[in-house]
Amino acid sequence: MNSATQTLRPQMERARRAWRGSPLPGFLAWWGGELRALLPTRWQAFFSGGNVWCLLRHDGGQWHVRRNGQPQTAAPWSDVLDAAAQQAMLNTAVAGVDRQDLRLALCLAPDTVLRRRLLLPEAARDNLRQIGAFEMDRQTPFRPEQVYYDLRELPGPAPAGRIAAELVAAPRSAVDAKLEHLRNAGIAIDAVDLCDGDKRLGVNLLPPQMARVHRDPRRRLNLALAGAALLLLLLCLGQWLHNREDALTAMQAQVDDMHGDAQKVSDLRKQLEDSAGASGFLARRKTDAVAVVDVLQDLTARIPDDTWLERFTVDSSGHLGMQGQSAKAASLIDVLQTSKLITGANFQGVIQRDPATNKERFYMDAQLRKPASATANAGAKAAASSSAGAAR
Questions:
Q1: Range of the domain at 357
Q2: Average pLDDT over residues 66-86
């Protein structure tokens, strides 16, 4: 298990650096702060989870504790107190911080730490700690086994293909005494760092094998909640698919009913077309009516080129309606008087000039002439009616 952890550590460090370098942490921190600000004051502390770093500094035989980023320090205590007293003083100093979120960093004095700025290839970003061990012999008078060290990437511009980094190292002799004293007092720390004002610098001089392992009891609850959320999501998707299948089944049933109705209509239409009276009626209507194609051809031949129609209607009684625009609309009456298919052409309404086309807009009514066969049939019917009346 330990070898597997060592193998995965570079990949985990690479993922952490990529996450910290992305804009997502800042956005999520801002978003979470805005959401917490909307909650009642008593609830805000409950939802303000996350690691809370407290800086532990030894100065003149006294231990001082303060939260990261806050200038005020808690009441110091002497390093000659027994273990129980020192633990009690530390608990008082970090009162109000959840034990699961508490992280302790031992801050060293600046004059006990060696710092060197380096320019490294970009490929070194994924293995900074090993690069730090290699650079130790070149940049410092110490060997890697003589110091606690860490290498951090510096923000800001750097030459192309290079990254700016800082090597931070402290002699083991200066750190081991403090670590031994804290172990004897029963105080476990998470990092050895350097104070940068009222904040920690952001390095951890402790080797990975000396880092404290935190067992978070809330992780199991968080995993259970995440699993429940995933299960609910899958149930919602399944319900959505089930509803779609029900809707599709209902629509298919409606389509089948409509197909049956359409088949009945088709059967009735076939019966109507098969009847002798219907076929004779349609034949007579076709013989007695003027073809619309012939009317359109006649109008096309007679209407001038500077005239066009926007609407053309013919009803079952032969009434003809035309709407359009012409350079000289009044002359259309004379043009249509000689037509063999159209009679009684008259304007309806007032002729108006269209400002967009500078032509006269008109609406005209007319009547289709009946074919000669239809007139003859009408005359024959009239004569037959007269003869029948005389016979009576």
A1: 291-369
A2: 85
